[in-house]
Each structure stands twice: as structure tokens, then as C-alpha cells.
Amino acid sequence: MTATIRKDWDTYFMDIAYMVSTRSRCPRRHVGAVLVQGKKLLGTAYNGAPMGVPDCSEEGCMIVEQYEVVHQADGSEEMVKKQRCIRTIHAEQNLLLFTDRIDREGSTVYVTDQPCWTCANMLTNSGVTEIVFHRPYLKDTEKVTRMMEQRGIVFRQLLQYEPPQQAVEEIQKEHM
């Protein structure tokens, strides 16, 4: 009899977040999120258009451009252009919409991608005490990390994590 290696909890819950992300029909990025209290899974969500509304794969992305002033280490400022889709509700937002505040108190959110500024703002007021992500979102990393430190929320990236092959294949199949 061969002994199987049991996955650690971070890998287990991030695997679930990746599998949830395969439900997304967003052509830009599939994101999944799960809410965990202790070792108990309380909710899952993915990014997509509101229920009953055509999604990006049906009607295309609704891209808006925004400009943001970024303060450089040398004291100078740089204007940075960002593009984002406004048709899609982010996975973290859906997770907050479909879970109860009482369940979020002291809980952990596992999300495939680092939350953007808006989602990070929402999560900081949601009652969660930890956010674990895999893929970075470089546009907002610095200010989101700073906010999490200010709020005392554990904010960590799983650097050595490998998504489940089935989820990777499903996401790649969507983009062919």
C-alpha cells in the first residue's frame, strides 16, 4: 500500500478557488474565491456579469480607462493609465454578496488573484482577518498591501503553489 501525501490546508482551499474560477466566462481572467472559517468552507464565488445579464463572452468586455497618480520613491509623481472591465462583478464582491456577515467574522478568503483596490476595500470592512492569494495584481499591490497592514489583516501570497491541472486546462480551453 502506497502512502499518499495529504495536501496542506492552503493548497486544498486554493485548489477549490481555482476550480470555482472555471465557472467564469470572462475572456480576460478567471478568478475564484472561497470563504473559510477554521477548516469549514462557507462559500464560493467567481467573477462574471450579474445574473440574467449577457456576459463578456456574449457581448464583449466593457472596458473603461482610469488614470491614477502614483507616488514614486524619489518623491516624484507618475500618472498611470489603468484599464478595467465594468461588466464583471469580481469574485470577491460576489463572495461578499452571497455570504453572511456573521460567517465572515474572523474568517479567511482564498482568492486566485490578489484583490484589486476596490475589492480590498470591501474585504477590509467585511469581517475577514486573512486573505490568501496566488497570482499578484501588480497595479494595486503596494497600496493594497499597505492598507492590509494598517487594518491588521493577514495578507499573503502562496508563492510555491501550483494550480490543479484540471482547472488550468479548463481555463485554457475557454480561451481557444
UniProtKB/TrEMBL annotation:
**Keyword Metal-binding among UniProt keywords:** yes
Q: Can you tell which superkingdom this protein's organism belongs to?
A: Bacteria
What the entry lists under CDD domains is as follows: deoxycytidylate_deaminase (cd01286)
PROSITE patterns tied to this protein: CYT_DCMP_DEAMINASES_1 (PS00903), CYT_DCMP_DEAMINASES_2 (PS51747)
Q: Is Lipid biosynthesis there in the keyword field?
A: no
Any one Gene Ontology cellular component term annotated for this protein: cytoplasm
Q: Name one GO biological process term.
A: pyrimidine nucleotide metabolic process
Per its UniProt record, what InterPro entries does this chain match? Answer: APOBEC/CMP_deaminase_Zn-bd, CMP_dCMP_dom, Cytidine_deaminase-like, dCMP_deaminase, dCMP_deaminase-rel, Deoxycytidylate_deaminase_dom
The entry's active site is E92
Q: Which UniProt keywords apply?
A: Hydrolase, Metal-binding, Zinc
What's a Pfam family this protein contains?
dCMP_cyt_deam_1
Instruction: Name the cofactor(s).
Output: Zn(2+)
Domain CMP/dCMP-type deaminase: where?
A: 8-155
Q: Which family does it belong to?
A: Belongs to the cytidine and deoxycytidylate deaminase family.
What's the name of the protein?
CMP deaminase
